[in-house]
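From the methods appendix. Each design record in this collection lists the tokenized structure first, followed by the designed amino acid sequence. Records were kept in a plain field format so they could be parsed without special tools. The example shown here is representative of the layout used throughout.

RECORD:
FOLD TOKENS (115 positions):
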């Protein structure tokens, strides 16, 4: 399922629910296997959510930048084939949370409309 995050403070963020789930867990939401269709991170929860995501990003053991020291081989993996790290997936939502905190706004999510 595709979900959309809304805030009066920032542009919408679209994300698959399977990718949003670990980010929201890091933000302190007690979800286990599935993401509820709709939810909210209230303005009172923003500080804790931001700190939780930042802690998860700093604990992310995946390398953000591949090891380019061995350039003796011209065959490189195409960027589209590389896995997306937690840090890169979390950044747009983290930016939204920070802007929402600055402007004292809630962040909600719901299913994305079908086109």
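DESIGN:
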């Amino acid at each position: 399922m595709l979900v959309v995050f809304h805030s009066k403070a920032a542009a919408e963020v679209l994300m698959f629910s399977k990718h949003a789930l670990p980010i929201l867990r890091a933000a302190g939401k007690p979800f286990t296997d599935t993401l509820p269709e709709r939810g909210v991170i209230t303005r009172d929860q923003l500080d804790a959510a931001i700190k939780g995501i930042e802690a998860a990003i700093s604990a992310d053991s995946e390398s953000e930048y591949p090891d380019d020291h061995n350039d003796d081989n011209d065959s490189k993996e195409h960027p589209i084939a590389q896995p997306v790290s937690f840090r890169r997936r979390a950044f747009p939502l983290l930016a939204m949370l920070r802007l929402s905190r600055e402007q004292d706004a809630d962040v909600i999510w719901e299913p994305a409309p079908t086109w």
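APPENDIX NOTE: The chain has three helices and four strands.
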